[in-house]
Amino acid sequence: DVYYSPKGAKEYLIQDKFESLSKIKVEYQNYHCKTYKQSNSISHEFIGGLSIIDVIVNIGKKNTEEYIRT
Questions:
Q1: Strand-strand pairing, 2-6 and 25-29
Q2: CA 19 to CA 10: how far, in whole Å?
Q3: How far is CA 55 from CA 4, 5, 33, 48, 61, in A?
Q4: 48: nearest Cα among 64, 32, 60
Q5: What's this model's pTM, rounded to 2 decimal places?
Q6: What letter does residue 42 receive in the DSSP assignment?
Q7: Non-local CB neighbours of 52 within 8 Å, separated by 6+ positions
Q8: Does residue 6 register a pLDDT over 90?
């Protein structure tokens, strides 16, 4: 079994001894989020790593489907 985890979780998964206690191999993803228009950003700088809900709210369902495909 393999657990795919974002790299931000690595420290606590190691600290909790997740792999040795669960016998599940952890593979850390190095995901880089594509930018999209965020209408509620105060700083007007893109904030990555948010949930898919943020994508849907900001660019709509149809554009989110395209965003995921590309």
A1: parallel
A2: 11
A3: 22, 20, 11, 10, 9
A4: 32
A5: 0.61
A6: S
A7: 64
A8: no
| Residue with tokens 């893109």, as numbered in its chain | 46
Neighbours of 55 (CB within 10 A): 20
Cα 37 to Cα 39: distance, rounded to the nearest angstrom: 6
> What's the whole-number mean pLDDT along residues 47-64?
93
Residue type, 16: D
8-16: long-range contacts (C-beta < 8 A, 24 or more apart)?
Answer: 8/49
pLDDT at 30: 85
Tokens of 40: 């509620």
Strands (E), 1-70: 2-6, 25-29
The token pair that represents 4 in the structure block:
């795919």
